[in-house]
């Protein structure tokens, strides 16, 4: 069995700061990490490999630095890693990104047939959740998003059974390989990197593919050209500055402050009485 | 917008550029809202979008349509009636037993076929598990642009294009995205971000029926079972009328009981900021904000919450906000309705008692 896991390197959003004057992202010193959602998919792939055997290939598109994310994946136990990197990809939106990744997966598939593709539920930077569905449609893979558990894999009949989160419940689905799965967060826990895998990750001869190596001939489908969406404006939220009415009273006692507040509030918003009574019913 | 260009964001603005729509796309007219439903109930995000779609359609001077797909029967047809009540002029209806449950393959084909046949200029879907699964598939199949999780939708009248605004980088910045020379222009919006319009029960509209044209044997994925969630005891913040929320200013998990006490008196749900959820004081379903729930209660009481933008975006559509914070310069006082500067540990019990008495007099009055 051959599994491809798509992983994206993202800036650690907890540490992102926005320049107060220019409204640009200040990336200096912000560490790059593997998109946290992708780890749930990578772990699930590694578990399938543990149970059924086979190989796990990790794939990323991004600048040369993104190789760090791929090495990280190898240290967790992935077998192979490919970085698709080319200036021509700059400015890609999700449609162009899914085209580039689908082309690369097709190329990988020609070398060694792919049974399952995993992607993360979404990223923490672009945060669109659109690339997984995009790859599946382009490659005609069965799309299985928001999967909470894989309950059965029958390699002989090429069938897979799993639980998928829907809005008001869980769907139990059975489908055929090849398929594309995105895992829900919190459904498993990434294993620790082992020492031998860490050594392997450090020495691993990572493959770097440019657009030609990834089998892309139609450059109108990648980069800015292949991206229907255009960012027309980036701006800081304009907070509505209607400052709060600060409640004050002579005694400054909590009890009096509370009573003053309620008197003011119920006078100005008389309907709140009814709303609270309703909530209490 | 990949890693390589977003560095230099904001990049060259496209808005001012002289723009002419490809003549082949000029026939795309009208605004569509995909009506999502499950187990016989429509998702309210569809009606929130209908309200928003109405405004866009009026600006453009075009009809607003609902798209309803499901198993044949009165239940599915009832969603068309509901769509009219919420503002649709017409509905595209696709009924087929194969669409009884949501599955990506028939729904993608169904929606794609409808778009190709009737050519809308704008197509809106809810950013739900179903909506995101479907929107990403349909946009790729149609090779058009899709903007995710928008918080504001507008029409750029200069070129009649959809200007979709969404938060980026955890809400610290907003960006407006346009899809110029592709149709339809697609966008998803999260539940509760837009307000729910008042239904007009007298409104009606016309129904256009279209066949799916698929057989079960063509559909690879089978639904073996559907296990409904047990909602008993699960927090339902997005639809709560009153929410009492606590932040890091509550200091210790024991103090959080004061939040629960006030919530109990008010019949309210309990909410929290991210640090509180991460510390495990309350469950994830109670997180309000950018990476949690968007709420629109009639009353939101925030205690020991600074009002960071990531929290604010999830709650500032509340009708009335009461903020309790010991720091008079806390950002939350910039947008709350009422503020009390003081120690939450003493203010909260006083507020609980004041509400209790108020409610007691109410009950006597009734
Ligand atoms: C602030 C901002 C807003 C944006 N808004 C939009 C928008 O509304 N519409 C739009 O079309 N584009 C948008 N983009 C562009 C989009 O982020 C890029 O196209 C990006 O390359 C992929 O999208 P994502 O990060 O949203 O991934 P998602 O679709 O959220 O990612 C899902 C999964 O796909 C896989 N994946 C995604 N990217 C890669 C990669 N480079 N390498 C390997 N695997 C990957 C991962 O497994 C990931 O978990 C936006 C970008 C930014 C920075
Ligand atoms: C990508 C990203 C996504 C995020 N998503 C979310 C999200 O969904 N939801 C969210 O909430 N946050 C989110 N955050 C975190 C957010 O940026 C803030 O860090 C967080 O909201 C702050 O929580 P807080 O107000 O509880 O804590 P703080 O900011 O530490 O504020 C505590 C407040 O309590 C006050 N205080 C202290 N003592 C007392 C007292 N005795 N009585 C009264 N007041 C007191 C202080 O003056 C202060 O204003 C996100 C961050 C990022 C980077």
- Reading the helices and strands of chain A in chain order gives EEEEEHEHEHEHEEEEHEEEHH
- Give the ordered list of helices and strands of chain B: HEEEHEHEHEHEEEEEEEEHEHEHEEH
Overall geometric form of chain B:
globular
Helix content of chain A: 25-40%
Q: Compute the separation of the termini of chain A in Å.
A: 57 Å
- Give the total of domains of chain B: 2
Percent strand of chain B equals 15-25%
Give start-end ranges of low-pLDDT stretches of chain B: 1-16
**Chains forming the largest contact:** A-B, 98 and 110 residues
Walk me through this protein's architecture.
The complex is a heterodimer of chains A (281) and B (366). Chain A has 281 residues and is an alpha/beta fold. Chain A folds into 2 domains: 2-221, HUPs (Rossmann fold, 3-Layer(aba) Sandwich), CATH 3.40.50.620; 240-281, no CATH class. Chain A is built from 7 helices and 15 strands. Chain B has 2 domains: 23-218, 3-Layer(aba) Sandwich (Rossmann fold), CATH 3.40.50; 237-365, Rossmann fold. Helices cover 29% and strands 25% of the residues of chain B. The longest helix of chain B is centred in the C-terminal third of the chain and has 22 residues, at 344-365. Chain B starts with a helix and ends with a helix. The model of chain B is unreliable at 1-16 (pLDDT under 50). At the A-B interface, strand 3, helix 3, helix 4, strand 9 and strand 11 of A face helix 1, helix 4, helix 5, strand 7 and strand 9 of B. Strand 11 of chain A pairs antiparallel with strand 13 of chain B, so a sheet runs across the interface. Bound molecules: flavin-adenine dinucleotide (2 copies).
Could you name the key traits of this structure?
heterodimer, A: 281 residues, alpha/beta, Rossmann fold, 2 domains, 9-stranded mixed beta sheet, two-stranded antiparallel ribbon, B: 366 residues, 7-stranded parallel beta sheet, 5-stranded parallel beta sheet, 18 strands, globular, disordered N terminus, binds flavin-adenine dinucleotide
